[in-house]
Each structure stands twice: as C-alpha cells, then as structure tokens.
Amino acid sequence: MNACLKTAGWLGAALPMFAAMIDVTPAEAQSSSRELPAVVVDQPSRPPAARSRPAPRRQAASAASRRAAQRAQTTPDAAAAAGAGAETATGPVRGYLAGQSGTGTKTDTPLRETPQSITVVTADRITDQGALTVQESLRYVPGVFADAYGPDSRGDYPRIRGQDPNIYLDGTRVVNTWQFNEWRPDPFTLERIEVLRGPASVLYGDTSTAGLLNLVSKRPQAEAFNEIGVQYGSFNRKQVQLDSTGKLTKDGEWLYRFIGVFRDSGTQTDYVPDDRLVLAPSLTWRPTNNTSWTVLGTYQKDTTGSSTAFLPHEGTLFPGPNGLIPVRRFASDPSFDKYQTETGAVSSLFEHSFGYGLKIRHNMRYTHVEGIYRSVYPDNYTTPADPFLDPGTHRTMARWVSSRQTTKDSFTSDSNAELKFATGAITHKALFGVDYRGLGERASAGSYLDTKPFDLYAPVYNPVVPPTLSPEPDLRQSQLGLYAQDQMRLGPWLAVLGIRQDFVSNNVQGSPAEDTKATTGRAALMYELPFGLTPYVTYAQSFTPIFGSACIGGICKAQQGEMVELGFKYNPMPGTAINGAIFDTIEKNRLASDPGGTQFSVQTGKVRIRGAELEVISRVTPDLDLIGAYSYLNATVESGDNAGKRVETVPEHQASLWAKYRLTAVGLQGVTIGGGVRYIGVSWDGADKLQTPDYTLFDAMIRYETGPWRFQVNASNIADKRHLTTCLARGDCFYGIGRTVLGSATYRF
Hints:
749 residues, mainly beta, globular
C-alpha cells in the first residue's frame, strides 16, 4: 500500500504536464487533508469549445445546461440525495429509482447514458416486496423469468431473455451457470441487484447472450446506521438479521459494517429445511479523499435439501388415474437427502483517483466452498412418455440415487484504469483493464438406479442404500481477459466502443487441455433530446466456451452470439424513468447430434431470440410509487436438434405491476400499503409437444412505522394458485410456490 501511495504522488506531480499535452480538463484537486468530507463522484467535465468558434461555444454551453437539467431528473428524491450526498454506482439508493450504475460500463455512469437495458433492484425494493432470495427479487423486472424452475432450494436460476445468465458479485464472477453447491448470497447482504440484459462479454468474458446479474454488496457507510429484525412466516420460517455500520474513527478514515443472518426454516416441500447462517464483517480505509480500500469477509453455511422433486408430467401438468400429485410431495429419502454449502470468502475493493481525470480500481476475491449434494429423484428420463412401473395404476416409479461431495477454490481479479480527457470538442472516458478468474475443484461422486417401486401418491420412505463414491478427476479452469472501452461525448451525441480478448483454459486431470480464445466487441450510439428522451442503438457480441463435449474434428468451438438492440431511456420528470427496447439476438455453435449416428456432436445449432421490453419506475406523487414491466419474447431454434421448435422455458408474454402507497393523505401516518400482480404467459417444453399453462399471481404488503420501529407483513401468491413454472420434454415438471406469508419486526437505532 505504501508503494501504491508513493506511485500516486509521483503520478500526481506528472499529470499536469500530461494534461497540457492532451487538453485534459482537471478533475477535483487532490487533497491531503485527514478530515474527510462526503465522497464526491468524479463527474466528467465538458471541455471549452474551440477558440476559433466563440459563437457555437455559447450555444453549446446553453445546450449543456439543458442536458444537465435533464440528467438531474434521474435522481429519485432530489432532497434526499442532497442531504445524503451524490449517488454512486455502488452506494445506497433511496426508494426504487437508481440514477447511477457501474454494471454496463464498469465506470460510474448515469443509467440514461448507458446504451443497454439495465434494471437496478434497490434494497428498498427488496424490502418492500419481501423477497427472500435473489431470484424472488427479480419478479418485477422485464425480460426476466424469475422463478423459472420454481422455489429451488439449491440456488438462484432465473432466465434472462430466454437464456441462463451468470451471476457476479461486485463485478467478478461468483456463480457459474447451472453449477451446484455454489455460494448463494443473501439479499439482506446486498445494496442492489443489477440486471444487465443482452451480451456482456466485452467487459466480463464468457457469458451468454442472456447478460448477467451483478450483485452489489452492502459496504461500510460514514453515516451511522443500526438495524435488528426478526421474521416469522410460512413453513415455520424464523429469522434474525442484523446490520450495523458507521465510523470507527471520528474523522471517518476508518469505517465498518457487520451483517448477520440466522435462519431456521422449512420449505414448501416436505422434509426439506432451509437453514442459514451468515456472518459478513467489512472494513473501509480512506486515508485521503481520493483513496478507498474496502475488505469484505463472509462466512455462510446453508443447510437444506432438494425442494425440487422432478415430478412427471402426469400428475402435475395433467391428472392421471390417481389425480394430481400434491405440491408438497417429497420424492427423496428423508434420512439421505441433503444439500449443504459452506462458504468462506474474502473480497478486496480498492479505488484511487489521481486527479486530472485518472482513476484506478482493483477488485479481487478468494472463495472456498465445500458442498454436499445427496438426492433421490424419480426416473422420468428413461421413458418420458410413460415413466411408471405399474402400467395399470400409474402410481410407482423407479428413482435415481445420487451423491456428490465437492471442494472448490476460486480466485477472481479485475484491475482497470479510467482516464478522462478531451480531443477537441469530443470528451472521452477511456477504460483499460485486465481480469482473471481461476477455479479449482475436487470432487467425488456416485449414483445408481433404484428399481424398487416408489409410490408418488402414498409414499413410504424406506432408507435407500447410499451409492459408493469415487473420486472425479481434478478440475482446473482459468480465464484471462484484456479489455478496452471508450465512452465519448460530442454535444448531445454519446458513443460507446469496446473490444476484448479472452483466453480460456479447461484442464481435467488425465485429459487433454481444452483451450479457447475469442475476441468480442460492442458499439453503441445515443442521442440526448432536449425533453429528456435518449434513444440508442447497440451492437454487442458474446461467447460461451463448451467444455467436456466431443465434437467431430476435435474440441468444440465456443458458442458465439450477437445482438442488435434499439431502445430509449426517457426521464419525463424528476423521479420517473421509462425505458424500452426491441432486440434481435442470435447464438451460434449450439451442440446438435451427429446426423451420421456417431457418438460425437456437430455444431450447426443456432437459436434466434427476438423481443421487446418496456419498464416504468416512477414516484408519481410523494406518497405513490409504481413499477410496471412488460416483455415479449419469440425464441426459436433455427438449426440443429429441434430446428423450428420453440426454446424451452421461455414465456412469450410477461407483465407485472407493483404499487406502494403511503396513507398520509387519509391521516394514517406511518401506514403504507403495497400490492402487485404478475402475469406469466405460456411456455413450451423444447420439442413443441407440451405447453406449460399461463398463470397470474397477486402479492400484497402492509407496513406500519412508528419511531425506530417498522412492522411489516408480506404475502405472495395470496390466492394460493396452484401452478407450474416449467415442464420439459425430458420428462419432468416444476411446481411454483404457493401462498407464502411473512411477518417482520425491525428496530433501527
């Protein structure tokens, strides 16, 4: 650290001369004061007009003033923002509407200047809607099928624009798509959840055309805040949670935060617990106004089971001779079933501003995860059309018995430098960075098919014989990426150009290394109209490596995707944002069976997803907040297996509306009511043979606040509608969650 600060001083002395050479407008001056005021966001400054054109200079200044006023409208609560300091891309947000984000550009950028679809789910929104998991927090986000596979106790598996996203924490990967026994961050530890829709490989590497989720941790704050709360709800849920932050020293050089969660709970599925322990201390050091270093620690232990029973089509999608299988049915073995994930993680978030428009960031995290996954589930897959062992009565099935134990160590790092400068009338915010991700996994596993009949309608839970575990080959994966980006402005015109080179390696013990590399890019153009409307057009690429699959000719090529998106950001008045987009996405190199009948795969598959989205977030009056969302998706397989069929688990239409109203106008001080409606359209099984019906669900909330106390009750699916979220051609269906009620009491001091 001392070496870093010495380097900062040397560069600080050299930068004025460099600024004169490239016409940089100096940013805030460096300060050596130990008395630290509120953090000031380093905003880009507009350069003076060319000296040879004085008249246009005055006009540009006037236009700049109008655009500055428009950009100010993104602030959800101007008075609150003025009192609490300017909003940042990682800091808290008052209410539902965020104005800044770092997910789309890796720089602190206004959302209205980010040329891609992004939704920021704030901590206030998570609290109001009573979301208990990350995927539940996304129920009112356009383009997202939040509960695609029901209330899965194993992890968060939402779908974005018909595809599966990766999940990031503070800008680096924390969860790989459809991997088990991964760290599952608790929403109570998060400041915001940011949904980036569409390809994001130019900044993040191997990601699908879905985009990604970026979870932003709660960090130490200079303003003291303490909160302790208790919850009790459906399935005998009992939870205690604590959040405390403030200054460790009077001058604010050292800040702290501690978050704790303890939960003892059941789930909708019989015999499946949902217990959790989270301890999350963090510390921030701010030796000067321009330097910040935060270290976050996490210990988390989740003990649960398989809430997903993988039930057959008959008895769920349609009744059989015995009617419908109960929603709470547990198809595993209570004495054997277990899903336990124990996580230890340390994160470092460093940022230093040199002044004169130069800022560096370095984020890294080490994570150690130990997991146990034992489950028993029905064999729907051998003969999906008729999986029952008793042809006459259709009651019993064979079951798979599976067990796996894993130990994972991962290291992620992202370092970048941001430089603001001007070339004539064009201002630039350039970003140059390198990121790295390394994963090591050791595992042992075993499974077998238990042919003893299991009655799905009147189960008898006789203990199964545990499978014999055998060591799997050790796995080592790494990704190294180099990226560059330039955010440019010329009057009302904004452009974003980016390019990236990735090098990815997959090493399985005893097998040849699988290495791949890819170049991806993004180009976007925006135009700020004088009445708060900013249309944009974006072209972006993605790539996703395919490991462990044998293709004709050798190693499979990475899947490659591209997207064209035409959209707009509109802020008609303070506290309101209306965002919309239409897009066309293509992903190539999907695996398909070899038509020649060999055991190898061919990569002729291609999926095309076209759609439209609309989102409204508004504080209509000081007492009324609204969130509205609609999305349309047309997802089809254009070549390869199931060519011409619809992509599985993609509702064609989704719509939602959430409203919160404070009853001050009728004299009920401190009382707030809220409610929402969610419509999920029909989806298909991947072979166009089975259709999962559409459904509509209703949610509600009531809150009473008095002094330091907050009492709240949330109810989701208040009509207790029985529904299925997904049925797949492979043979299984997934129940959605029924009525859940959650009561909470919180004391703030």
